[in-house]
Amino acid sequence: GHLDALLRGLVLGKLGKAGHKATLEEARRRFKDHVEGKHILSADLRSPVYVTVLKHGDSSTLDTMLKLHKQADMQEEKNRIERVLGAISQPELIQKVLTFALSEEVRPQDTVSVIGGVAGGSKQGRKAAWKFVRDNWEELYNRYQGGFLISRLIKV
């Protein structure tokens, strides 16, 4: 049922982020099959699989996720990817995600989700996101003109 699917995604995401070996191996296998078009992930498993492979991934994993984002034909999938990019854990890759947040690849109204994903991904991500917001305050403020998105950005 619907609630079981939600619970499954939540549990798998937590296990994957924690590094549970069997979950990580399965997530990597399913991600590879998804990227290669062998077996497309169901919508309810995409976020936990994406989070798991990103959390334990490298620059190649991030590049693959950014490629999936670029190729996505539905905004829902782009948003799903944008929300999980912050799971990446290497400092230089966190910076790459933050730079991506202000790129033309991300709709201005979705930039906050990318930055928020980084801030919520780890303690290191939170510090990097806060520095990024401070360093880019003028651009962010001008982009949102004091609207609700700027207050949401500050909250996250």
From TrEMBL:
At the top level, the lineage of the source is: Eukaryota
- List the signal peptide residues: none
Query: Which segments constitute the ERAP1-like C-terminal domain?
Result: 2-155
**What keywords are assigned to this protein?**
Aminopeptidase, Hydrolase, Protease
Q: Name one GO cellular component term.
A: cytoplasm
GO terms for MF: metalloaminopeptidase activity; peptide binding; zinc ion binding
UniProt protein name: PSA aminopeptidase
The beginning of the lineage is: Eukaryota, Metazoa, Chordata, Craniata, Vertebrata
